[in-house]
Amino acid sequence: MSYHSPQNLTYQLTSSIGLDIIKGKYKTGEVLPTEIALSTKLQVSRSALREAIKMLSAKGLIQSIRKKGIVVLPKSNWNMFDEDVLRWILSSNPTISLLKSFTEVRMAIEIQAATLACVNATTTDLEKIELALDRMKAAEKGLDDHLESDIAFHTSILEASGNPFLSRLTGFTSTALKVSIRYTNAAQGKSGDIAMHDRIYEHIKSKDAEKAQIAVKELLSNVFELIDSYGNDFL
Questions:
Q1: What is the pTM of this model?
Q2: What backbone torsions phi and psi does residue 234 show, to the nearest 5 degrees?
Q3: Are strands 62-65 and 69-72 parallel, antiparallel or unpaired?
Q4: Are 125 and 160 in contact (CB under 8 A)?
Q5: Which of 8, 82, 106, 161 has a beta carbon 3.0–4.6 Å from 113's, enabling a disulfide?
Q6: Rounded Cα–Cα distance for residues 191 and 185 (Å)
Q7: Domain end position, chosen among 32, 47, 77
Q8: Is 177 exposed, middle or buried (0-12, 13-18, 19+ CB in 10 A)?
Q9: 221, 212, 218: which is closest to 126 by C-alpha?
């Protein structure tokens, strides 16, 4: 392994072991190799490995148990709102059911965010949403990135909600959308529906919360249909 800094080393170690756990190389309840064995196998110092172990413990993937060792925890313990954990899961063949679960979370979060944005959005917030929408339109002409502009639209609404807790979910949402949008765009054979996004923006701009809620629900209902079009639980 080649690393450029202690911080980079710790992060790469965390990612490597985390991915192994999520991909099932280490099963739930299994005891990981000792620090000595792991550090020798990965050719890293024990201090760097300890830092990675601490990070994985904080993410809910493992737990150090006295007289037993480092034990792999079940999925129910994983911090699904942790961006690293979510990215590892989504990078290792996400299932249809996982994408549906994420869309269910989006339904709850984005409807509320749009509702609050109708009340709390500042001029700057509205400009950010409009800019993201313009980027989506530019992407249709090959002048911007389809995925990044679509993500920017949705995260801008979270920020426009004025709710600090919803605003903190932009990283989580962005991480998951990078996978979700890619699959839904592939299913429909095109990028996100510009007209549907445009309606959401216009309703937020006009402070019509009821219509904004309906527009968001319509958009996400369409996402559910696209996910269902895959027809099985594995992508």
A1: 0.82
A2: -125, 135
A3: antiparallel
A4: yes
A5: 161
A6: 5
A7: 77
A8: buried
A9: 212
Burial class (CB in 10 A: 0-12, 13-18, 19+), 191: middle
Question: Which of helix, strand or coil describes residue 221?
Answer: helix
Note whether 104 and 62 are within 8 A (CB). Answer: no
The helix (H) or strand (E) run that includes residue 1 is: none
Domain identity same for 51 and 153:
no
The one-letter code for the residue type at 21 is I
List the domain range (segments joined by +) for residue 36.
6-77
Phi, psi for 45 (deg, rounded to 5): -75, 155
Q: For residue 203, give the CATH number of its domain.
A: 1.20.120.530
Residue that finishes a domain, picked among 36, 53, 77: 77
Alpha-carbon distance 204 to 136, whole Å? 18
Show pLDDT as tens, one digit a residue, over the chain (235 residues). 444 445 588 899 999 999 999 999 999 999 998 888 988 988 888 999 999 999 999 999 999 998 899 999 999 999 999 999 999 988 887 788 888 999 999 999 999 999 999 999 999 999 999 999 999 999 999 999 989 999 999 999 999 999 999 999 999 999 889 888 877 777 666 556 899 999 999 999 999 999 999 999 999 999 998 888 876 654 5
- CA nearest neighbour of 153 among 119, 98, 193: 193
CA distance 128 to 227: 28
Among residues 179, 192, 203, the alpha carbon closest in space to that of 150 is found at: 192
User: Same structural domain for residues 65 and 113?
Assistant: no
Query: Where are the extended beta strands (E) located within the chain?
Result: 62-65, 69-72
